[in-house]
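Thread title: Can someone regenerate the structure for this chain?

I was given the following input by a collaborator and told the matching structure tokens would be attached. They weren't. Posting the sequence so someone can regenerate them.
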Amino acid sequence: MKYIPNVLSIFRIALIPFFIWQMILGNTVAAGCILLTSSVTDFFDGLIARKFNWTSELGKLLDPIADKLTQTAVSVILILKLHGYWYFFAFMILKDFIILLLGAILLKQGMKFKGSSFIGKVSTFFFYGGMLLIVFFPNLPAQLVFAIVLIAVSLALISGLMYIPSYKIYKQEISGSEESNELQ
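Best answer:
Regenerated them for you:
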């Protein structure tokens, strides 16, 4: 039972090709349902892990990877579908790549993840909500699409910037533990 959150994260990763496939076929309702399923499982993954204390190091790794892969897939597809907004989605992809890269560096240096921040959760929630609107309703007015994308990117920027101090703290913790190991 304690592995349910990890199974949900793996399930979210497995949904990505099906979302892409449905979007390519133009089945926005099916794609939206897949994205909705992914976002609901993302919510329950975290809720179950915290409520029953079923958190794990693997889960702390899988959950953000599932988030970033899903958000990247959605961004790439929407670059293809919403040509006028490509720079917004390119920013989202770049931000996710940088966060994953920094996370990989920390992981390689033996740092354990503490979980996502509140603003990261808000950003992810708004991204899913906004992109669900865009996917389910492909004929939204351009001003509304622009507002949704702008808010999602703004939250992603704030979230991404919030990782910089956390990254520096993690790096200092690594340096401090290396120094104390050398003294022993």
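The chain has a mean pLDDT of 87.
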